[in-house]
Amino acid sequence: MKKKLTLCSLFKYAPKFSVKPKEETFNNRVITIGYGSDFKGILRTENPVRLEGNWDGILISCNKVILDKESMFKGNIICNEISINGKVDGNIYCTGKAVVSSFAQVYGDIYCRLFSNATEVTLNGFIRLLDKSEAAFNKIFSEFKEHLPSTDEEQTLYINKFIAKNSMAS
User: Fold this and answer.
1) What is the mean pLDDT of the chain?
2) Are the C-beta atoms of 90 and 71 separated by less than 8 Å?
3) Do 115 and 94 contact (CB within 8 A), yes or no?
4) Degrees (nearest 5) of the Cα angle 102, 33, 126?
């Protein structure tokens, strides 16, 4: 470890150790697509995602996804948990809980284990509740196989991260 000196009161020097942050502190940083931003493409991440702007593509996150009031998502979402406050035009595959807040709009199907919605929402599609079986999860991921890691072993590890999060939440 490198020693750094810090100036203390009355000009006394106290040693301060600089330590690299642990990797786990980076794993839960929220990825934010801010207001006025447009994103087009595919994102696969283990971190939570917050959308305040517009998205056109595919989002795969084995964590929570939050869509703000003014957000517009066009495409498909695979996530562990989702909170919808904006507009979605596409299907949502949620291995955990899906929450649709007041005045949100969803034009597409929602596949999830738990579902909750407020009043004054627009839902134009099916809501399908999944069981906790591995087959249900694998069915979701088979549709997006080309967007998962390249080898079967890496894909299994990635899918297991979704399953593990749901096991802890239950």
Assistant:
1) 77
2) no
3) no
4) 40
